[in-house]
Amino acid sequence: DVQLQASGGGLVQAGGSLRLSCAASGFTWDDYAIGWFRQAPGKEREGILCIDGSDSSTYYVESVKGRFTISSDKAKTTVYLQMNSLEPEDTAVYYCAADLGWCDDEGLKDGYDHYGQGTQVTVSS
User: Fold this and answer.
1) What pLDDT digit, counting tens, does each position of 34-61 carry?
2) pLDDT at position 83
3) How do 114-115 and 46-52 pair as beta strands?
4) In 10 A of CB 62, how many CB atoms?
5) What is the 3-state secondary structure (H, E, C) of the chain?
6) What phi, psi does 108 have (nearest 5°)?
7) How far is C-alpha 87 from the geometric centre of its chain's CA atoms?
8) Ramachandran category for residue 15: left, alpha or beta (phi over 0 → left; psi -120 to 50 → alpha)
9) Could you tell me which residues are beta bridge partners of residue 21?
C-alpha cells in the first residue's frame, strides 16, 4: 500500500522558512510523481509543486516559484518541501501526495490518487 507521512509543519513569522518532509513507501518510485498540495481555510485544496520519480524533473505553480523548492533524497524514500519567504497567504494544511504517472500541471490540477495526512503551516504577519 502507498504510505505517505508528512511532518515539519508549525508556526512561523512572515518572511521565515520551514522545511516539510514526506516519508514515502509502498510504491515504485520511478513510476510515480510526488507532489505537495495545500488547503487553506475555506478554500479548495490546490496542488503547488511536484517532482517526477523517474527523472526528478519538477513543476511549480506561479504562486510559489522562487520561494518553494521540492527535492528528494538519493535513497528515494523522502521528499522535501523547502519553503522560504513565507507569507500569511501560505497558511494552510499541507499534504504530500503520490500519483502513478509524471509530474506536470495537469496532474496538480486534477489531484493525485494517494494523499498522506496533512501538516499545519501557520504564517503570522
Assistant:
1) 999 999 999 999 999 999 999 999 999 9
2) 98
3) unpaired
4) 7
5) CCEEEEECCEEEECCCCEEEEEEEECCCHHHEEEEEEEECCCCCCEEEEEEECCCCCEEECHHHCCCEEEEECCCCCEEEEEECCCCHHHCEEEEEEEEECCCCHHHHHHCCCEECECEEEEEEC
6) -65, -35
7) 17
8) left
9) 7, 80
Pairing of strands 32-39, 46-52: antiparallel
User: Three cell numbers at 61?
Assistant: 505553480
Q: Is the pLDDT of residue 76 over 90?
A: no
User: Would you say how long the chain is, in residues?
Assistant: 125
Picking from 56, 109, 7, the residue whose alpha carbon sits closest to that of residue 69 is 56
Q: Residue 29: what are its φ and ψ, rounded to 5°?
A: -50, -45
